[in-house]
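Entry for the shared binder. Reason: the reviewer on the internal report wants the predicted structure included alongside the sequence.
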Amino acid sequence: MSSEKIVRLGVIGLGAMGSEMLDVAARHPEFDVVMAADPSTPALDRARAAHPAVSYVAEPERLLEEEGLDAVYIASPPATHAAFAVRAMKAGKAVFAEKPLAVDLAEGEEMVAVAAKTGAVNALNFVLSDRSAALAVARAVRNGEAGTVLGVEMRFGFPEWPRSFQRDAHWVAGRAQGGFLREVASHYVFLTDRLLGPLSPVHTRAAYGPASEDTATGLFLAGDVPVRLSGQVAAGPESYEWTLYGSDRSYRITDWADLWVGDVSGWTRVDPEGPRGSEETRLGEFARAVRGEEHTLADFAAGLRVQRVVERFHSAP
């Protein structure tokens, strides 16, 4: 594919994320949104009103059979990811999917195997793959500014689950496909995996409310570096915090994008270089992947490593 060619894109799933990505792709100079699919008539009607030039179908299978597509973006519930991605890759299409990769490990393994066999471009939409704060920490670790990495800690808090913008996606609330471990913690597990390598479980525990997990605690090792994760749905502010502790400097990312550097004098807020990172920039990264160029996105193999960490909580006795 030449650098001048526009990526002809199909979108599966028009919930919160699918609708947002459709909006972004429709105005992105490197994409032409050709078709979108969702079984919900109201979802199709909303998308059609906003983007009347796109073709709409209720059956994702019709989109996957469309020969005029270079790539497919998948934002349907996680239990459907494998079937759609495998069929798309076998049809010669590149695939950009929302996380988690899958909820069944065998399906995740199949996605990785088919990607390897077909050579299809494959990527997952982890927010921290191109977030400027995460890239700054990666540079600091790579350049030795952190010194020896001594540990990583992830902490999350939610006054309610699901969050307000996800209430229409009923699967997000359930244990089978949703919960904050899959929806939120997976982004930070990905970042840790990218910086330090695969995580091996030492101890995991999750406690469940009427639907998904209410609390989760875990200890992993990335090589010999301890990685701790804790989260809960409880009274208090919504919070997202990832910290890498180094012998010379430590680094903290809060609220997805705010970067702090810690030393003997305390924590200092800093402004990382470059664009903040967004759905638009990650779509640009996907276009580069489709063209065979270097990019920052996670592939399905990285997504499978993250899936194994997350599903360890749900399979622990």
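Summary line for the report: DSSP finds nine helices and 14 strands in the chain.
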